[in-house]
Amino acid sequence: MPKIIHETYIEAPIGKCFDLARNVEIHTVTTKNTNEKAVAGVTTGLLQLGDSVTWEATHFGVKQRLNAKIINMNAPRTFTDVMIRGAFHSFTHTHEFIDYNVGTVMKDTFAYKAPLGIIGKIADILFLEKYMKNFIISRASELKKIAETK
Predict the structure, then answer these.
(1) Which DSSP string corresponds to 100-128?
(2) CA–CA separation, 45 and 135 (whole Å)
(3) In 3D, which of 31, 27, 28, 4 has the Cα closest to residue 130?
(4) Cα separation of 112 and 8, whole Å?
């Protein structure tokens, strides 16, 4: 199972970073390249433990829906979401926040299994892992900009 780990230093307090990362409206701003929007479940505000949200977005030129659920939360240090339904076979995305007094390190750990058996494994090697890494880095970069300017 591939695992993508990315860390971003943000010059903002841990609580602010934690709340921005689980804010549905901010999520749509940080994923504007894929036109992501919440279409079912929790569609506004801050995601809480047990909440689920269905995201609609365009990836690889195809409109897709993905339903994720928050299965773990320890505010303001960590929360984890898992895919319930969607294009992947499965995924777990853990968001961790480490307080450094003058700022916060936001650590994304995204572990996933591609769909479609061997075809999915080939797609992962050819392009999927790189695509997902770039998606996570882009979202973190946008979240950093928001956190450091608001």
Answers:
(1) -SS-EEEEEEEEEE-SSHHHHHHHIIIII
(2) 22
(3) 4
(4) 20
> What pTM, to 2 d.p., does this model score?
0.94
Mention every residue, 6+ apart, whose C-beta is less than 8 A from residue 96.
77, 78, 106, 107, 108, 109
Average of pLDDT values for 4-33? Answer: 98
Unique residue bearing structure tokens 């450091």: 148
Band of residue 45 on the pLDDT scale cut at 50, 70, 90: very high
| Cα 40 to chain centroid, rounded | 17
CA–chain centroid gap for 95, Å, is 8
Strand segments, DSSP code E, in the chain are 3-10, 37-41, 52-59, 62-74, 78-85, 90-99, 104-113
Q: How many CA atoms lie within 13 A of 131 on its CB side?
A: 13
**Domains with residue ranges and CATH for the chain:** 3-149 (3.30.530.20)
* Residues 80-116: tens digit of each pLDDT: 999 999 999 999 999 999 998 889 999 999 999 999 8
